[in-house]
Amino acid sequence: MSFVAFQFLCMQKIWSEKKSSYKCIMLYPRWFDVTWGFPPHWLWNCYEETSDENIEVAKLMSVCWLNVRGQFKMSELSSGVVYEIAYIVKLTKEGFGWEFPVTLKLKVPEGREQKRQYSLLEKPIGEWIELIGGSFQAKEGETREVSFDIIEHGGHWKSGLILKGIIIRPKH
Questions:
Q1: Which GO molecular function, any one, fits this protein according to its record (predicted)?
Q2: Which domains does the chain have, with CATH numbers?
């Protein structure tokens, strides 16, 4: 891949739903703070989406401390709408170390935090899946940030998780 092509990779995509005209956001892995987010712990690969966009995914090669976090401004969303956040991930057949569940955290500006746990051992291999991280209501005039995390600090090595991104969309 040439350096020029790398410069045009997406970090985020914002659009409006056709039926409701509510805003949606897709945040790609380069938007996140990934602990140990460099080779040999993580690989960053490009692939072409069905929309002909080049996106970059992050593939976990080997870490004992999974910690991926990010944030976005609530002001980028449609006020008054209840949103949900979903992590889009895939497990590879060579993956290991998922005996303990991953924890998803969502913290909204007023300080309320939601946590959900998912056992990845129960998820299909080789398919994109969504892990719902929680929901919140976008408030008019709110300029602070919503933060999110996916963590697993069990102290054992794990591998084989591909992170495509996080989607923030109206909850239906």
A1: carbohydrate binding
A2: 26-170 (2.60.120.260)
